[in-house]
Design goal:
The protein is built from 11 helices and 10 strands. The protein is of the alpha/beta class. The chain has one domain: Rossmann fold. It is globular.
Length: 316
């Protein structure tokens, strides 16, 4: 399949015109990526419109759903997926629409917070995932925590790393404001280098190239540029109200809720305290601090994976 535009019916996760114009990254861009041997799986969101996901481990294993943020994709979890699957758990790691091997609507107006929530909701319902252990970071936490609150019966526990659920009532960190402005205005948007700037360890040239792989042209980067501006930073943002409703659910959440933030993230530092204080399911649990920057999956994957396995009552 070429990287040209494809027509597609609009799903419930999109808005506006009658049809989406879709970009699809050529499959050859994903050949022989370092540390990423996983077979591709696809869920159809509409005519010629698909979402990619990794599905590793036993089919009857307990579900661990790993949601990435931006501008990354499921490649972010490559060090963790085999470790968690080896413990007998079924690891499912989708690429958000607009990222990775998933298709990429071409216009900024095709993307929205509720839209991405609806796309992942449709994916979860299509696979009928139950008793989910949610592992989420960055935008994966905004989407995942909303889904867990709105469909609590499908989730068994939550492991939150370097993320949150903003409601527009608190000032965003300066580092986030710099990032949002850069994503919106900079003519230069080198995704591999951006990810590398959010890690403590030095990514190899091949790893940086793997993060660039889904985005052969600037047109493929629309989602990565758009999502920072979709974070609800004002109380009157329509998504702020939805997030406040989700917080109402989380304040009554008694299932296990574990935070594992890193010691070097300027964007989310300190945000874990609110969850440990306000979510009943977080009380009495260990909430380890992991090593690394914003993308702690690159910096401390062994400990992160071991934490997930232990939370699910397994051993490595």
């Amino acid at each position: 399949m070429t990287s040209g535009a494809l027509p597609a019916d609009r799903s419930s996760g999109s808005r506006g015109r009658a049809a989406l114009r879709i970009l699809r990254t050529p499959d050859e861009r994903f050949a022989d990526l370092p540390g990423y041997p996983f077979a591709p799986h696809y869920h159809e969101l509409g005519a010629a419109f698909r979402l990619h996901y990794v599905d590793e481990g036993p089919r009857d294993g307990a579900i661990v759903l790993m949601l990435h943020g931006e501008p990354t994709w499921s490649y972010l979890y490559r060090h963790m997926i085999p470790r968690v699957a080896a413990a007998g758990l079924r690891v499912i790691a989708p690429d958000l629409v607009g990222f990775g091997r998933s298709d990429k609507p071409a216009l900024r107006s095709d993307y929205g917070f509720s839209g991405q929530v609806a796309w992942i909701r449709g994916f979860i319902e299509a696979l009928d995932l139950q008793q989910i252990t949610l592992v989420c970071q960055d935008w994966g936490s905004l989407i995942g925590l909303r889904l867990a609150a709105e469909h609590e019966h499908r989730f068994a526990r939550i492991v939150l790393a370097n993320g949150g659920l903003p409601t527009g009532e608190s000032e965003m960190p300066f580092a986030w404001k710099v990032w949002e402005r850069f994503a919106r205005l900079s003519p230069w948007f080198p995704i591999g280098r951006i990810v590398a700037s959010g890690t403590r360890r030095r990514l190899s040239a091949a790893e940086r190239a793997a993060y660039d792989a889904p985005f052969p042209t600037n047109a493929h980067k629309v989602a990565a540029r758009t999502y920072p501006s979709l974070v609800p930073v004002r109380r009157d943002d329509p998504e702020s109200a939805a997030n406040r409703r989700a917080w109402d659910v989380l304040r009554a959440w008694r299932k296990p809720f574990i935070t594992c933030f890193s010691d070097g993230d300027p964007i989310t530092r300190g945000a874990d305290r609110r969850f440990r204080t306000e979510v009943p399911g977080a009380r009495g649990l260990e909430h380890p601090t992991l090593r690394g920057g914003h993308f702690l999956q690159e910096d401390d994957p062994e400990r992160f994976a071991a934490l997930i396995v232990a939370a699910c009552g397994r051993t490595q």
